[in-house]
């Protein structure tokens, strides 16, 4: 159902207007079948606010109408949350631009725009508090009728719905962006008294609001018509015109804008002024976007506050600011007019960056011009005398401020425009109101006592990573749907039952007082000591946050996902925290989603899938079967058995073979630097890819998961210029029956080495299954022993193990894990979407979320190696490879032509040494920097071994100390492999890049540098 926002911003008492507005909302819902969100943005004082609350409470229920009455504090809370979510700089300044302490017609409308985004509305329809509707035969004629008839429809469809069309046929394909009318009655700007007192002065004062560029006759007409709207013409019959609507023919009290306009550009947020809220009317007109002009003109009147001495001066100040701002605004309008439809992008949307640029240019002060205009106003007001002299005195006292704010207001507008895309994006996922309470639950497993035991291999591995890495990288999260009819009590009871049922949820990891922290090669502690023991409590209490909302964002699932992500960013205390951080999301007390983050020490993706399935069964009233899966304590006992130790030993030997013989890094090439990089995420959604994947599987008889893994490995190895693909493939380790439904952290990395030096894709596919099976069978290991082995092997080899390619296929899991969205309901042929960046401890990280009916995966790649076009090329190359393989066996020598992906380019100084791509020059530079910037020369001998030549000065040096220094510098330098021998000479030759020159020097000592490790 189409949802629209009918809004009334007000800072004065207007209960009758609220009542009339509700009638207009009901009319729209009744006649057009839309859902109308009636939004009253109230910044009035306590007395008026109380009147408004009473008026809202007295409104009769109307089908299709939902009323939202937000006071200033509620608006501020919403804006704070939106701004915080956007993570934009200067949040307090942004809040002040959106909700200033002074009156701002632009800011109040901008708030309506953001709140309309939060409510999921497609348009905003604004009314004012000092007006009422035209009538015919005693019946109100609501502008909303015309607005809903045309807004958002293609202009060629609207042409048959209006009285007449004056639209250029060239613009008929565009959608109607604006529908508006004007006003009758009192002038929109209260200057009638000036005209009565002195018509000549009136011409001069109002002339300050009209551009000097207009011809004299045209200019006089504009002055005469200014602020008069439709005059006093009574409404007798509807007249509507499809046209490019002139801003002088409509008023902001009688306007409707499509979100394609206000979703791109805000209004200037200038305070204590008028007229700036008309900016979007000029933008729509100058961009030649279609609009509809109607004659249901609002009846305008002036409130009594302007007649008080204080009210008069306040209003005249606003008018003066408007006159000072006029040439600055006109500068933007002129540029927009010159650009015309070119301000629109390929999708027909306004280029907000161009608007910001124009506004920033217009903020430049022109002291002479602005001062002269202020002098005209001062002279005219003093000519009028009486209270206008007081106004002139006020302008004179604040002259510097008046002149400065004409420019600074435009600078504020430019900055807000720059931030607008982020604000609207996050507003769409921010609730209007929410109340958070904490439910404390007690869970007791009857018939049990507290028990202790060693940690499992999976727990030990995860705990080691948790103590080293950031929480948002190590915690996991999920969002569970809530079946209709579920009560909050039932939802909480089911969570309690899960805690009783599964020991992992009652497990903590006490600190080991006898253990010491792990130490780096530099001798500094790198992480606290890892707990070696787990404690399973028979009874515990835990907390669940209940977040209740009057209204949820339109995209409830996305909002719940953000709540889960926020919870994921905070670390769990291993020795005391309940391993699930749960938020029960409710709407007016009714549960709609469960958003949770989980400690990876207690759970993994498979465990969360089991918990989700069981929770849904519990809230549905089903009885769960007894738990037969291994508990973490039982698994630890099994792992410590002779069979478990043999299995772990076999895994370590597999890892040792790969790390000792495969490339130390897949992406050893120019530009690959740093151990961690900030990488943007790219999501691929492709029905073409899914269809091709299914056809390859059908043609070859292979599993789709194996086909996808093979294609990705082939593409990565091809792009990296490597003869093999080494990738970490996280596995659930749930292929044993007793572990299939275990709630525990049992997933670990499988390390896959796939030889891609074969003729065709089908041959590679036949080898991939065996290679993957070998990797999966060797994915249960003691993490401490693994890293001891890695340290030993890499020191002997002179390499650094870089987990720089990770491929994680979680498409078989039902949960929305690791940031995956729910299954796709639409199927684009091929769509690429860029998302938020995250720290990437490697070069390529890929998550596969879905393989049918859409191939959906997200990949994060090092932007130094994969600029956006190259990253997109890699993703689309995968689809092209699958499509080719669906038709026939693909020669791997043709991958460049088939996929469009080109291998890495390495210069002549890059060589293959011990299965790794190496730059001897980079080895020399890195070793030299590690040794006080001394000169170093590295040469490749006839046996493809590296030899490093180093002078003994400036400090004593041995091969072992040189090797240790280089090993410490290897992380983040994938093109550097330690030399096989280090030759220490008395002094460096003059030609430091010439091997014979080094050979002529006196050798003091030489060796492998591995002596301390026992290597000869």
Summarize the helices and strands and which ones pair or pack.
Blueprint: E1 3-10, H1 15-32, E2 35-42, H2 46-57, E3 65-70, H3 72-86, H4 91-98, H5 105-118, E4 123-126, E5 131-132, E6 135-136, E7 139-140, H6 144-150, H7 155-158, E8 164-165, E9 178-180, E10 183-185, H8 192-197, H9 199-207, H10 216-225, E11 240-243, E12 255-258, H11 259-262, H12 279-286, E13 291-294, E14 298-300, H13 309-339, H14 352-362, H15 367-384, H16 387-397, H17 399-427, E15 433-444, E16 451-454, H18 457-468, H19 471-474, E17 476-481, H20 488-501, E18 507-508, E19 518-519, E20 525-527, E21 533-536, E22 539-551, H21 556-568, E23 580-587, E24 590-598, H22 605-619, H23 632-639, H24 642-661, E25 677-686, H25 687-700, H26 704-720, E26 724-731, E27 748-755, H27 761-777, H28 783-797, E28 805-809, E29 831-840, E30 844-850, E31 855-861, H29 868-887, H30 895-899, E32 911-913, E33 916-918, H31 920-930, E34 937-940, E35 946-951, H32 959-969, E36 981-985, H33 995-999, E37 1003-1007
Parallel strand pairs: 1-2, 1-4, 2-3, 8-11, 9-13, 10-14, 22-23, 28-30, 35-36
Antiparallel strand pairs: 4-12, 5-14, 6-7, 9-12, 11-13, 15-22, 16-21, 17-24, 18-21, 19-20, 23-24, 25-29, 25-31, 26-27, 30-31, 32-33, 34-35, 36-37
Properties at a glance:
alpha/beta, single chain, 1016 residues
